[in-house]
Every structure is written in C-alpha cells, then in structure tokens.
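**User:** Once you have settled down, spend some time on the protein underneath, comparing sequence with structure tokens, and judge whether sequence predicts the tokens.
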Amino acid sequence: MNKKHFYQRLTRWQHLRFNDVILRERPDTPAWDKKYEIYIQDNSRPAAQLYIRTTQSGENTTLVMEEYLNWLAEYNQECEVSTHQENPVIQFNRESRRVAMTH
C-alpha cells in the first residue's frame, strides 16, 4: 500500500483519530512461515481498528510498522493544521490588550 492509498483509507474514517499501529500474528500460518496482520487503532476507542494489510513472509515487520506510524503521524499533523486554518483561535492578551489570531 502506498502513502496516497493509506491517506484515502483514513479519510473514510474522519470521525476516528487513529494513532497507533498494531501487529497481530495470523493463527492460520505455520511456525516456519509466520504472517502478520497490520491494523491501525484509535487508542481512545480500542475497538476502533482498521485492517491495513497482511505482511509477506520474510518482510521486516518493524520497518513496515515504522513506515505506517510515520504516515499516520504525518496525516494527523496535516489534519490538525487544516482544522486550525479553518477555525482560527482568537486570543486576547490582557497585558498588551491585543487580539491575536493563531492557527
């Protein structure tokens, strides 16, 4: 799965905030050829998990998980920036008696 496809999947679930990657061993694989399933999870709702894909034999699961964690962090950061731009926060500084808008 490439980054664009990953982001597209996340946009379908905008009411959730996925923030973790989970690796589960597939019980139907032999011990010498283990395969794992990768999910992303909203830690505030442990039941909210989205299947991403199954690893292939010999694939470095640590690197794959790191890649998805990085993409997830980037996606969440982009969402925060766009939310702040759409809804600027207006703050009043009592000391300088100025109004400042932050994004």
User: Anything to note?
Assistant: The chain has one domain: 3-102. The first helix runs from residue 3 to 11. Residues 88-94, 96-103 have pLDDT under 50 and may be disordered. The longest strand covers residues 45-54.
